[in-house]
Amino acid sequence: MTSLFHFKTTAGHRHNYPQVVCPNHAVIGGNRHFKTSKSTVNPSVLRLNKYGTPAIDPPKERLEWVVDTKSPSTGKFGRFGGRFVAETLISALEELEVVFHHVLQDPEFQEELTTALKDYVGRETPLYYAERLTAHYKGQNLGRGPDIYIKREDLAHLGAHKMNNALAQAMIAKRMGLTAVIAATGAGQHGVATAAACAKFGLSCTIFMGTADMEKQPSSVDLMNLLGAKVRPTAGSFKDATSDSIRDWTEKLGEVYYLAGTAVGPHPCPTMVREFQSVIGRETRRQAAEKWGGTPDAVVACVGSGSNALGIFHEFVRDPTVRLIVVEAAGFGLNSGKHAATLAAGEVGVYHGAMSYLLQDEEGQIICPHSVGVGMEYPGVAPELSFLKETGRMEFYSASDEEAVEAYRRVARLEGILPALEASHAFAYLEKLCPTLPDGAKIIISCSGRGEKDTETVFNYPIS
Amino acid sequence: MAIRAAATSAPTARSSSALSLPPPISSSSSYSSAQLSFGRAKSTTRPRTTVGCAISCTMTREAAAVTSTEKDDSDPALWSRPDSFGRFGKFGGKYVPETLMYALTELESAFNSVKNDPDFQAKLGGILKDYVGRETPLYFAERLTDHYRRPNGEGPHIYLKREDLNHTGAHKINNAIGQVLLAKRLGKKRIIAETGAGQHGVATATVCARFGLECIIYMGAQDMERQSLNVFRMRLLGAEVRGVHSGTATLKDATSEAIRDWVTNVESTHYILGSVAGPHPYPMMVREFHKVIGEETRRQAMEKWGGKPDILVACVGGGSNAMGLFEDFVKDKDVRLIGVEAAGLGLDSGKHAATLTKGEVGVLHGAMSYLLQDDDGQIIEPHSISAGLDYPGVGPEHSFLKEKGRAEYYCVTDEEALEAFKRVSRLEGIIPALETSHALAYLEKLCPTLPDKTKVVLNCSGRGDKDVQTAIKYLKV
């Protein structure tokens, strides 16, 4: 079904930013496959960074746009982002933006948020040296290999990074005097986090969830009900639930607060979510400095829509020595048509209020994504990540269902940690990454969630 | 006069205990056989003489060596918890087959040596911080406090110690980590454990995966069916799960099987006991590994309100999470200690696990303590909706604290626990384990009796994701 909020860009769209053919994208287990918007590459602009991949320094002012949160902006990250919504929503979004910038400067809000993050969510989460995982990769390479650290977002309350954002936004809703919150959820993690935050602050909560997802994750539905939230089924999956919830918001403006779960959607949602998740990256920088007196050489995160990746990357975007690596879901393989690798196989268009890469067919209809990690099944991606891809600041790869499940098992056996299947995609990429890195390089992997919810899937998964 | 049971005392600070132990004595270790030995030889190694059944008088330096309880013992700071035999008053001890005595003594020596070893403590602290996620927060439960506020605005302040935020979702891992590090120190390559619902099994399998040790978990066949997801998890973590079909195929049978395995393989194997029950040194050791809970609480309470808690509340199955919270405060007589057990379907129904309320003193799994037994001394199968409280015994130290009147013990039914489960989920967005819900349920009875601004700290010992299906079924949410 067509969302109200997306259309395909025309090929002749004018822009000033060099288009990068990203040769650093490698298809695991498939043919090399490149997809970009139709434009040419200017070879004179290309130069190689220390890893031998194209490096383009985005002009300083554009990076400032990415990181600037001090004043209202157009919400654009290069040509991505923006606010492609029905007119009725514009004033609500503008109001939200004003409140958002206000709370960022408000010491009382910040103190309450910090206390809640500490006492309720359990921050700061540890940066854990994965001794056995490190030894495993060194052992495959004559004792030489990177040192692997895991940022333990799985230890946050309710087992995923989603809580950081849900908590802050529930506080904003209260501040705005709204007593009802709505949200859309795919795998259920964001729904559960929102339901918990609403319970904590005494707000009523309605969660939109696709019927297909409700069948795949019934335990999430139970959790939401237990926490006092109402779950409204939508025919379809996350993308349909999101469209429905935005529609509901448009109908009930001024009565409900729309709690965005990830860094997609119309401005200011992507910026807000990124800002509240960026606590992950700030802690990581401090912990890295404590542990080895420096910054990481590479930060690896899975990407469904991009909130956990942006959360850990944001702090390091301006550090050119830190490689930013995302790993998408290749599902059954990039050529199978059953995957969720938006950055690899998508085209630029407008979806859910923002311009970004998305999985669409020739007619501009959304392709239904697939991944064994339900949280990865989003056909779009955060506009900020699209920008980081296009400017070459970020590298993107993908891992198939099978590789993710294998990674889950590997990390369970070696470290006694059950990573969420979503996070397992990031762990899967270590197989390709570690052999290429010098001895003692520091890698940080974002373990965005815990995998107890996925135990049955993994146990029953047929590994060939 | 000092009367000692045979070969049970292990003086502290001896690292090569194997060579310095007295030779095995043919008579079994019981109270009635009197032997001469100089216990608690912390400073010098005194000559040991073994005498046949004769009682001699000995001058010893420590007044505490006298095992009678005639001296004034109202000051908790003076209590031996435990004494050198592993007894808490008359509870505790080491009622085990002879083959295990050496292993227990070795374990105790190893534990005593690491207790003061800065390297070990640093390593343990590092793992607890980076792997387990300590320190856990002391969270002010605002809406729960509001819920118990009386119409005149007065009421206690309720804080939750968030052990549910630990890796694997319960306090159990504190002890599992400590014991596996100890096992490595002892050079053991094989770890065994028993488990009921699977929580302790998962915690053990987790730490074995982390440290690369072989892991075998004994689980009752009936429990394996009811908790198949936990069985999957243990297998994914690389552990071998062995089903036990004897008896009622539940926890107590799994424990017996595990002990049997340990007796057979004692040289290569360490037995990770999950609670403060079992033979000495386990109750003391497990308590010491969980003590960090109470120590953190003291510091956090000082930060938050500049004082101590007035009341500590915790659920009691075997008793490890309660001892972990209580231990640092036992000597503070102005801090009330409250343990909450499972009343199951009601104390009169016969289907409960309220050991300290309805049990009698006996020996189970190597320790003397209260336990649920019938007139023939057979163990009564306990019942609770929460598997972790479903244990027919209780840690000997709890029996001791109850007898001394230092701690109070109450109980709560399945239904009350389920109500509390739902209440806390809705009021705080925290889903507590059904075990913890028993402690939370007791707040209903406790809070109306408390003066304004009393500081109550409740140990939120685990998270309740594992119990959602059960709860939904009963609550019809």
Strand composition percent of chain B: 5-15%
Mean pLDDT of chain A: 85
Number of H- or I-type helical stretches of chain B: 17
**Over all CA atoms, what is the radius of gyration of chain B?**
22 Å
Strand arrangement within the widest β-sheet of chain A reads: 6-7-17-12-13-16
Helix content of chain A: 25-40%
EC number (chain B): 4.2.1.20
GO cellular component, one term (chain B): chloroplast stroma
Cofactor (chain B): pyridoxal 5'-phosphate
GO molecular function (chain B): tryptophan synthase activity
Set down the secondary structure blueprint.
The complex is a heterodimer of chains A (464) and B (477).
Chain A: E1 7-8, E2 47-48, E3 54-55, H1 60-67, E4 76-77, E5 80-81, H2 87-105, H3 107-121, E6 127-129, H4 131-139, E7 147-152, H5 162-175, E8 180-185, H6 189-201, E9 204-210, H7 211-216, H8 218-226, E10 230-234, H9 238-251, E11 256-258, H10 269-277, H11 279-292, E12 298-302, H12 307-313, E13 323-331, H13 342-345, E14 347-351, E15 354-358, H14 383-390, E16 394-400, H15 401-415, H16 421-433, E17 442-447, H17 455-460
Parallel strand pairs in A: 7-17, 8-9, 8-11, 9-10, 12-13, 12-17, 13-16
Antiparallel strand pairs in A: 1-14, 2-3, 4-5, 6-7, 14-15
Helix pairs in contact in A: 3-5, 5-6, 5-10, 6-8, 10-12, 11-12, 15-16
Chain B: H1 17-20, E1 87-88, E2 91-92, H2 98-115, H3 118-132, E3 138-140, H4 142-147, E4 157-161, H5 172-185, E5 190-195, H6 199-211, E6 214-220, H7 221-226, H8 228-236, E7 240-244, H9 251-264, E8 269-271, H10 282-290, H11 292-305, E9 311-315, H12 320-326, E10 336-344, H13 355-358, E11 360-364, E12 367-371, H14 396-404, E13 407-413, H15 414-428, H16 434-446, E14 455-459, H17 468-475
Helix pairs in contact in B: 3-5, 5-6, 5-10, 6-8, 10-12, 11-12, 15-16
